[in-house]
Amino acid sequence: MPPRPPDSQAPRPQEGITLLGGPQTGKTTFLAALQIALLHAEHLGWSVGGNDPASTQAMIGFMDTMTRLHAFPRPTREQLEKYKWVLTGDTRRVWVWDRWLPRREDRTTRIPLDVVDGPGGAADNSKGFTAGLGQDLVQSMASSAGLIIFFDPLMEVERGETFQHLYGALRTVRDQLTPRGKLPHYVAVCITKYDAVPVYRSAVAMRVVEQSPDGQRFPYVPESDAEDFLRALIKKSSGDDASLIPKMIKQTFYKDRVRFFVTSAIGFYVATPDGVFDGNDYQNHVRGKPDRIRGGVYPINVVEPVLWLGNHVAKATRQ
Amino acid sequence: MIDTPRDSGVEEIVVGLTRDITRLRLGKALTVAEFTTPGLTVWKVRPDACGVPRIRYWRHEWASLRDWDLLNDGVLLERIVPEDATRIVLFRSGPRLPLGAGEAAERNARDADRAFELAQAKYPNASALTTVNSVKDLLGEATARVPLPPSLWYELVELRRRRSGRLELTVQQLFLPGARRGDTRQFTIRCAASGPRGTAFAVVARDEALNFELVSLAYARIPPGSYDVTATLLRPGLVQFDGLPATLRPDSRSWLDIRAALPDSLDEIKSAHLIVAVERFGAADVLQERLHRAAQLFDHVSAAAGPVTYSLVTYASHSHPRVMRDEQNRVIRDEPVTVHAWQQRDTGLVEQALRVLRDRDPAPAWYPRAAQVECMLAEVADWLGVQDGAAARRLVLVTIGNKRAFPSRVDPATGIIPCPRHNNWSAILKRLVDDHGDVAFGAIRDRDADIVASAGLSFEIWRRLGANGIASLDHFDARAFAVGLGLLSPATQHLPLPLAVPEGAG
Predict the structure, then answer these.
(1) pLDDT tens for residues B318-367?
(2) Out of B324, B369, B410, whose CB is closest to A282?
(3) With CB atoms counted within 10 Å of each terminal CB, which end of chain B scores lower, N or C?
(4) Which CATH number fits the domain B4-145, given the four candidates 2.60.40, 3.40.50, 3.30.420, 3.55.40?
């Protein structure tokens, strides 16, 4: 059992979730796919809505871009985008005390989801974190209760800069909040772009792929194998520091507050809406100018990290 | 010309002469004695071995037939003596002598009348006719109306290429025995490159014993190609050919000259089916170049007049989503593989399709990394499968484009999305080769550098599509390319005679 974080000593994060990752690691697409993922995962009983007009408009825009235009949302540039969304769960009947008497009441679970999406360049070590976007990002991270850290295997193989984009920001937040301890955040480490051909083939080669028994039978990597998969992918990095990423995460956060997910924001291609996964034809990301989404959007492991973080963030906020 | 409106007897005269000439057997002659004011003309009409009534004549002035200013009866009758007394016709012809014509003319006219009477007395069974028309005109018309003799066929000399390539003489039947003026015959010939002396049209007469006589020899410099020709019998010995792009002129060469110019054999191509597939998306100027090269290839191959049929296919790229919308939210479909012309005997429809395509914008390229090459191959294979007789022709597929094919399944090497129909270009190519055996593949890529790239594994399809010939838009020698694909002979061979085209073949 890992040691509980010394809540009394650590500064209490306020609320919300911040996304952390390098440029083009799929942060905005991940967010945009969340509402589609929740629609597909109807059985979970959760939906997401906007908490202010701008956030609602952003959701509508994301949906239109991905489903009608078959395009990817425009990457965040020049500023931190703050979305005030709310996850709404099923209504459930609970007992409450009213004037010393128990009474049944319908209650709907609502988890505020304040998400900060910054440009990948905001986490660039070379630009520092004492001013500008870097400073904004660090402040957002410091005030968030949850972090989603994005690891893009394709970008890592191509450029090998993930560590550089994580280390500076995390070090700065840590020094600000807990110079001698670990950060209290809940962290979902998302290995993105699982739908990409080399990533999926790597998972198949590692024998960590399972297939959902129903619906469109999309293959997925169980959470229990996700961290091992990350380590395997890190070995393919073109950078020298990628192997430090798991160590840095372990050193920065409490182990029981970190979970790993192998995610795909757009999912795999199926030929028809009721079609099933075809191992010969699953490529959904179409490279071009601009890149396009070939078929429908079927996110994989997008809801799971958000719900997990959302629950913990809600609890942290209530404390 | 005969003045028929003013002389109602002319038609009867001509019919009678025609009948008399027609009845002549080979070697026999009809004698016609014409008594006119200027003198006596004796005509001999004798059909030759070609069934052509040959006319010879001898003209005698009255002065030469007089002794002591009197007509010498004996000399006169000696001049008109026929080969056979039953084959002589007497004419008192020419216009009535005008008043004041002069004493000499009047004397000549009197001698003409006198001689006509003497001849009638000598040959009482002969036709004795009076007409204002000249016998020359009457004979000209009558000999034109004479039908071809029995057991005599008119034929056009052609060449036929045996399987070994050896050339042999053959004939195209033109007219049967008894054929008359105005009879026609339609047939198809193929003219190869003929050289400076042109293509000779030799009409021969053939009898039952297969003896041939040259009737006429004419020539013209005719561009190589197939022609639907109409032969018309103008008169025995004179055949007119319509449907050729040049006018025939009398040929001064002898038949031996023609024979001497004949090559022993002809390196001719096999009958082939040339299919040109053009990638129809990309930059507009490049697309124009592709279409231009296609037209050049069709031109060169059709000019050589090989037994080739022509097809034109275009293909573009697949759109990646099932439903693509433009900025106005309109649904847009990708341009499918299109067969514009299929197995045409000439390039007319193909050239027309190319003209239309030149005026069109390039197809939209929703996914410019690859082209529907695999679907084009599948379409071609399907069309070949349903076309009767297609297998009998050698298949030549020329692909003009630059993009790779869509893979049939996820391709980790290129990352190109699979073909929505999961067509497998490699399997289809193999099927084409298996089904059609002697298949030639030619490719025309955009740039020279693309040809170099074709050697790479990722462009294997272009290496296969250009297995028998690969060129670029930059450097394209249509003739050399066609030779490489077996569509043209390596060396230009001149043929002085047209090539036979069997009926129903193309």
Answers:
(1) 877 666 666 677 777 778 999 999 998 878 889 899 999 999 999 987 78
(2) B410
(3) N
(4) 3.30.420
| Distance of alpha carbon B274 from alpha carbon B167, whole angstroms | 25
Q: A23: Cβ–Cβ under 8 A, 6 or more apart, which residues?
A: A75, A119, A120, A121, A155, A165
Nearest chain A Cα distance for residue B381, angstroms: 24
**Given A68, A70, A201, which is nearest B412 (Cβ)?**
A201
CATH H-level, domain B272-484: superfamily: von Willebrand factor, type A domain (3.40.50.410)
**Cβ separation of B367 and A70 shorter than 8 Å?**
no
Q: Is the pLDDT of residue B456 over 50?
A: yes
Give the CA count within 13 Å in the CB-facing half-sphere of B289. Answer: 17
Q: Give which of B152, B25, B18 is closest to B89, Cα–Cα.
A: B18
Q: Are strands A81-98 and A101-117 parallel, antiparallel or unpaired?
A: antiparallel
State pLDDT tens for residues A177-198: 887 889 999 999 999 999 999 9
User: Are the beta carbons of A33 and A59 closer than 8 angstroms?
Assistant: no
Task: Please tell me the distance from the alpha carbon of residue B132 to that of residue A57, in angstroms, as a whole number.
Answer: 110
Q: What is the rounded CA–CA span in Å between residue B123 and residue B120?
A: 5
Question: Residue A109's closest CA among A279, A266, A295, A311?
Answer: A311
pLDDT at A92: 65
ipTM of model over 0.85: no
Question: B281 — contact with chain A (CB < 8 Å)?
Answer: no
Q: What is B152-267's CATH number?
A: 2.60.34
CB B295 within 8 A of CB B405: no
Confidence of residue B391 (pLDDT cuts 50, 70, 90): low
Alpha helices in chain A (DSSP H): 27-40, 53-63, 132-143, 153-158, 162-177, 197-205, 223-234, 244-252, 303-318
In this structure, the number of other CB atoms found within 10 A of the CB of residue B172 comes to: 19
Q: Is B22 helix (H, G, I), strand (E, B) or coil?
A: helix
CA distance A133 to A117: 11
Alpha-carbon distance of B153 to B51, in angstroms, equals 9
Residue B276: name the closest of B358, B405, B376, B360 by CA. Answer: B376
